[in-house]
């Protein structure tokens, strides 16, 4: 008798099914790759979905130029290992305009470097489907997000006009100029992600593991001073602490947590005992009430 | 200490991880409206299973003071109630998903809000669920909406229902009340097609029988809701007998490898099994089952796999690899229950696509009858509006490999897409097909009208050009009752009026397209199928067909009616009795029949089933030809076929 499927195998099956549908039905799909844990899981699933072939689409890194240096190293290592076609895009207009995470305010900075950067890249390459690693559990406005999420010509999300999504039959028809965002990890939770990383022995960016790192306190956050660009107060010196990250964003905006967890089981154990949600460490969600919903309407993942 | 903390205190993380690796997944839906305490129940499940983080909880505490309905106490409904505000903003939210997990299972809740859009929302949520929780307010008992929710669950093939009788605290935790509602529900549920129904008395607000057994209801011993959700047997819900794999992609990473990627929709497969490919019907064997985790000897639904086959066959996306022993139905036509999901109602002249498995095809839809979601009764309807359900005839331009939804959810479900807006406008569940309508039954393969889906000319344009509404008039009656005479008179009258009629004369056609047929019941059925098929093509092209044909069997006439569509079919019975017909025996046919020279002759040696409710009965032994034609013309005017 065949064994019952485990929840992780079911989630894996669903994600692979979605990826294959998109590869079959769209002309120019792309997979976003940020080097974070969800991205790493998504890449792992894509490698499985098209085995023994390679994923039939390129990967895209929206490079704000402010990622952790460990992120760039990890990205390059993964790309080389699997022979991926990686595209890197930076919003050069914003760089030229002097936008940066310190002086511009996190809202304006994110809008320009992440969102505008993403839209530029989608437009430049005429991508009609873009995979993102977002999960419904992450945030209130994501709970009602479709797996195939439609965007108009201006890449905007119209929550008043969403298509019903039934069974695992995805309507892939779009009109010229329109595109979709695809969320193959929609039904995964943070715990599922970690459990799957553990089960499948997926390589992760080392920042997820606790290590002594130089940090400064910017209340309420601990910021890892990742390079010489970080502005320190006169006489201020970073202190070295045992820290790790629950999520990875731009280093000046991503809070670290103090931790001794330097193995996957320890991280998972710590996660189980956490009393704060994952996104609590990100500045971007707190700028204004309902800010995620607003960003999504504008085209953010 | 939380459950997890207690656990980690007793067991180390490695054993936790190992156990967590073996969890199953259960997807369920909650049915009820705001007043039934649905949000409170979901909030309670999330809260009591420690799924809520402190920052989320703090937000709810803040909001409870501001908006809560619980007098400043924490209002658990607020954990999920982003939805109310969104509704006010007019945002389409048919379903929001919530997640929680216990030591035994991971759960996904499909939370479907709203009164007005309930049918659409519920159908969407239920499509991926195995179980539904039906909330009943203990003070009100079974309400029309309880019946509606249960019916939609049944329609979408949910096999496990949990009827939670909520607000028991407000009826003094009364066992009598619980039993009364249980009996009331059970009586109604006998009509539903759901095999597992479980009843639990709860108070979501107070937490009775949700995670822990209630101390107020010692009379209830079957365990709390969470316990049921953790243990209800779901492993055998899947169809593991009928192997179906709709091909998603053909993988050719190098010259030596050609594999067919797809998710196993149902059944299982082993290396070496014989399989059939549809539509080609070619057979071959499975050479290997390839996955990134290594080759398998066996796989089952819903696993995504890559199959390689023993022979090089031409297979592409949309094809289905299936069992040889019990293959699916294969054809263009089937009946299905449709739920309309779009604000724009169904348009009979609209242009629609069906997506079934990995195949997309142009389709036509004909409403047979509507279904009242409150009473389950059939009702006559002209079109389908948002949230309405109807039984429909579906006819696709490309053949599909399908199973009835009830037997095989994955191979019996489809969506309907509007070709112009690209929106998903309906979902469908394929019904058990008429037993005779297997792939060998020719009635099942008449696809004349499917071609219309590709035509650039709409029925409206044809009707305007020809100034008539197309349809078929079937003149039935014994040999000698005057069918042909009447048919050609009627044709003449219509033609003179500027209409475009065509007569399909049974005897003529027997010398042409039916020259291979005899007069047995089967051959008569086949004869009428061909005539019906031609009539259908004529009608689809705007033309009125007049069929002069004996058509002795009611069941066959019924099938013609179905083939043509009820609104395009008029049955006219020429009721001249046998004696009169015999006396008019111009060709001497009756003499031959009586002499036994014609073995099967309706009226003499085989039955002529008199139509029970024809649209018109003409006693042609009493009426003149002109008067008979007048009566038919009047009927055509009344029905709006001619002006």
Features of the shown structure:
heterodimer, A: 301 residues, 4-stranded antiparallel β-barrel, B: 643 residues, alpha/beta, 7-stranded antiparallel β-sheet, 6-stranded mixed β-sheet, 27 strands
What does this structure look like?
The complex is a heterodimer of chains A (301) and B (643). Chain A is of the alpha/beta class. Chain A is 33% helix and 15% strand. The longest helix of chain A has 20 residues, at 106-125. Chain A starts with 6 loop residues before the first helix and ends with a helix. With 643 residues, chain B is α/β, with parallel strands linked by helices. In chain B, a hairpin with a 2-residue loop joins strand 8 and strand 9. In chain B, helix 12 crosses helix 18 and helix 14 runs parallel beside helix 15.
**Low-confidence parts of chain A:** 283-290
Helix content of chain B: 25-40%
| Total count of strands of chain B | 27
Q: How does the overall form of chain A come out from the CA principal axes?
A: globular
Fraction of helical residues of chain A: 25-40%
Number of helices, where a helix is a run of at least 4 consecutive DSSP H or I residues of chain A: 8
State the separation between the terminal residues of chain A, measured CA to CA. 42 Å
Taking all Cα atoms into account, the compactness measure Rg of chain B is 31 Å
SSE ordering of chain A: HEHEHEHHEEEHEEEEHH
Largest sheet of chain A: 6 strands, mixed
Give the number of helices of chain B. Answer: 18
Structural class of chain A: alpha/beta
Classify the beta-strand content of chain A into a percent band.
5-15%
**From the alpha-carbon coordinates, what is the Rg of chain A to the nearest angstrom?**
19 Å
Q: Could you report the average pLDDT of chain A, rounded to the nearest whole number? A: 88
């Amino acid at each position: 008798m065949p064994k019952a499927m485990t929840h992780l195998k079911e989630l894996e099956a669903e994600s692979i099914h979605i990826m294959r549908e998109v590869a079959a039905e769209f002309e120019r799909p792309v997979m976003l790759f940020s080097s974070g844990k969800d991205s790493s899981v998504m890449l792992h699933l894509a490698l499985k979905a098209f085995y023994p072939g390679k994923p039939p689409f390129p990967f895209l890194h929206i490079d704000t130029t402010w990622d952790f240096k460990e992120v760039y190293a990890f990205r390059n290592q993964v790309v080389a290992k699997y022979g991926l076609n990686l595209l890197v895009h930076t919003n050069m207009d914003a760089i030229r305009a002097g936008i940066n995470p310190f002086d511009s305010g996190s809202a304006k900075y994110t809008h320009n470097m992440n969102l505008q950067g993403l839209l530029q890249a989608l437009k430049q390459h005429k991508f009609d489907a873009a995979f993102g690693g977002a999960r419904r559990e992450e945030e209130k406005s994501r709970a009602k997000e479709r797996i195939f999420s439609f965007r108009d010509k201006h890449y905007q999300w119209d929550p008043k006009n969403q298509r019903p999504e039934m069974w695992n039959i995805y309507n892939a028809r779009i009109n010229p100029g329109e595109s979709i965002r695809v969320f193959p990890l929609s039904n995964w939770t943070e715990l599922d992600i970690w459990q799957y990383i553990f089960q499948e022995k997926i390589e992760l960016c080392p920042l997820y593991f606790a290590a002594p790192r130089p940090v400064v306190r910017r209340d309420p956050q601990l910021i890892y001073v990742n390079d010489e660009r970080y502005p320190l107060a006169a006489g201020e010196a970073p202190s070295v602490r045992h820290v790790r990250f629950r999520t990875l964003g731009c280093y000046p905006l991503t809070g670290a947590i103090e931790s001794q967890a330097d193995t996957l089981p320890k991280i998972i154990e710590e996660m189980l005992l956490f009393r704060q949600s994952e996104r609590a460490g990100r500045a971007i969600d707190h700028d204004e009430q309902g800010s995620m919903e607003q960003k999504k309407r504008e085209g953010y993942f | 200490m939380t459950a997890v903390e207690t656990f980690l205190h007793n067991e180390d993380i490695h054993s936790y991880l190992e156990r967590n690796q073996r969890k199953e997944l259960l997807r369920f839906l909650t049915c009820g409206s705001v007043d039934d305490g649905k949000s409170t129940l979901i909030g309670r499940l999330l809260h009591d299973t420690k799924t809520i983080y402190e920052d989320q909880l703090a937000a709810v505490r803040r909001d409870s003071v501001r908006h809560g309905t619980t007098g400043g106490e924490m209002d658990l409904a607020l954990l999920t109630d982003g939805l109310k505000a969104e509704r006010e903003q007019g945002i389409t939210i048919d379903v929001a998903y919530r997640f929680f997990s216990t030591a035994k299972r991971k759960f996904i809740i499909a939370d479907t809000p709203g009164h007005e859009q309930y049918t659409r929302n519920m159908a969407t949520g239920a499509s991926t669920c195995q179980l539904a929780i039906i909330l009943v307010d203990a003070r009100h008992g079974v309400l029309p909406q309880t019946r509606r929710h249960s019916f939609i669950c049944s329609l979408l093939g949910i096999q496990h229902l949990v009827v939670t009788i909520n607000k028991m605290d407000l009826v003094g935790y009364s066992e009598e009340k619980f039993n009364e509602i249980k009996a009331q529900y059970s009586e109604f549920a006998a009509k539903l097609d759901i095999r597992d129904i479980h009843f639990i008395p709860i108070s979501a607000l107070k937490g009775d029988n949700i995670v822990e057994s209630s101390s107020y209801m010692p009379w209830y011993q079957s365990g709390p809701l969470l316990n049921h959700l953790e243990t209800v047997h779901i492993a055998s819900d899947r169809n593991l007998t009928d192997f179906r794999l709709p091909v998603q992609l053909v993988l050719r990473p190098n010259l030596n490898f050609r594999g067919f990627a797809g998710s196993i929709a149902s059944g299982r497969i082993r290396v070496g099994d014989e399989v059939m490919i549809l539509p080609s019907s070619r057979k071959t064997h499975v050479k290997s089952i390839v996955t990134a985790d290594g080759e398998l000897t066996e796989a089952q639904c819903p696993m995504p796999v890559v199959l390689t086959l023993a022979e090089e066959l031409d297979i592409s996306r949309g094809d289905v690899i299936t069992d040889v022993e019990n293959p699916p139905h294969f054809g263009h036509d089937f009946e299905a229950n449709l739920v309309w999901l779009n604000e724009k109602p169904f348009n009979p002249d609209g242009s629609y696509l069906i997506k079934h498995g990995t195949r997309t095809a142009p389709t036509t839809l004909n409403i047979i009858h509507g279904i009242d979601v409150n009473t389950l009764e059939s009702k006559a309807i002209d079109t389908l509006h948002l949230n309405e359900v109807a039984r429909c005839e579906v006819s696709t331009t490309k053949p599909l490999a399908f199973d009835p939804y009830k037997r095989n959810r994955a191979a019996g479900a489809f969506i309907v897409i509007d070709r112009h807006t690209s929106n998903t406008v309906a979902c469908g569940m394929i019904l058990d097909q008429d037993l005779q309508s297997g792939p060998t039954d020719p009635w099942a393969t008449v696809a004349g009208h499917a071609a219309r889906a590709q035509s650039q000319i709409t029925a409206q344009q044809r009707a305007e050009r020809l100034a008539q509404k197309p349809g078929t008039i079937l003149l039935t009656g014994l040999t000698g009752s005057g069918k042909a005479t009447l048919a050609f008179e009627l044709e003449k009258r219509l033609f003179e009026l500027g209409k475009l009629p065509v007569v399909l004369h049974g005897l003529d056609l027997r010398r042409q397209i039916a020259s291979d047929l005899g007069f047995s019941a089967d051959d008569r059925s086949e004869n009428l199928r061909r005539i019906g098929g031609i009539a259908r093509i004529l009608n689809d092209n705007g033309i009125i067909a007049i069929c002069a044909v004996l058509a002795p069997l009611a069941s066959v006439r019924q099938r013609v009616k179905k083939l043509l569509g009820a609104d395009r079919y008029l049955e006219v019975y020429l009721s001249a009795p046998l004696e009169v017909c015999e006396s008019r025996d111009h060709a001497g046919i009756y003499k031959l029949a009586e002499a036994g020279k014609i073995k099967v002759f309706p009226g003499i040696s085989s039955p002529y089933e008199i139509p029970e409710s024809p649209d018109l009965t003409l006693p042609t032994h009493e009426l003149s030809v002109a008067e008979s034609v007048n009566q038919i013309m009047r009927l055509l005017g009344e029905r709006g076929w001619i002006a």
